[in-house]
Amino acid sequence: MSTREHVALVRELVELVERRIVDPLEILFGSGEQVEPVRARLRIEAEVWAAQLLGPDDALAVRAAARLVAAVFPGDGPFDPADAWWGTAFGRAVARRAGHPGKEAVPYATAGAMLGITRQGVHDLVKRGKLDRHLDGGVTTRSIRARLNRSLERHGVRRHDH
């Protein structure tokens, strides 16, 4: 984990949780004063969440990703963000640690967004056997996650999978 990656993730998590959870509370309570302790605690927790998402413990990272996704993207349907979300600091961390929550396979365009490459690049990787095509179409999230983690190890970032 690089310091730059950690700082970007913390900043994004603070902004996301403020926008999705804390700001609506401020509107409901009618006072910023009442939610200020929550904002202060949020800054601390965002540091912890970022460390968990980027740290060496896979199980802890997956649990943190699941909790955060459930809290900031609630809904009655499955979590299915726009492809652009995978390019965010939080999206990249989720892709590396959890893959696509709740999906065994994703379309080539989504796989490209998760990997930060074009759809054609995904086609080429599938063709060369570097990504696994799912029987029902698309690319397996397991192979995307494996490729993202291999890329980190090639660049000198060592993770210990448990």
Offer a few descriptive terms.
162 residues, two-stranded antiparallel sheet, elongated
Mean of the pLDDT scores? 90
The number of helices is 7
Helical content (DSSP H or I, runs of 4+): 55-70%
Total number of distinct structural domains = 1
Order of helices and strands: HHHHEHHEH
**Order of strands across the biggest sheet?**
1-2
* Strand segment tally: 2
Radius of gyration: 17 Å
Low-confidence segments, ≥5 residues, pLDDT <50? Answer: 157-162
Supply the helix-strand structural class.
mainly alpha
Percent strand equals under 5%
How does the overall form come out from the CA principal axes?
A: elongated
The largest sheet is:
2 strands, antiparallel
Distance between the termini: 17 Å
Write up what this structure looks like:
It is a single chain. The two termini are 17 Å apart. The protein has 7 helices and 2 strands. Helix 4 (89-98) crosses helix 7 and helix 5 (108-115) packs across helix 6 (119-127). It is elongated. The chain is mainly α and 162 residues long. The chain has one domain (3-154). The chain has a two-stranded antiparallel sheet. Mean pLDDT is 90; it is low at 157-162.
In short:
With 162 residues, this protein is mainly α.
Helix-strand layout with pairing:
Layout: H1 3-29, H2 32-54, H3 58-72, H4 89-98, E1 105-106, H5 108-115, H6 119-127, E2 139-140, H7 141-154
Antiparallel strand pairs: 1-2
Helix pairs in contact: 1-2, 2-3, 3-4, 4-7, 5-6
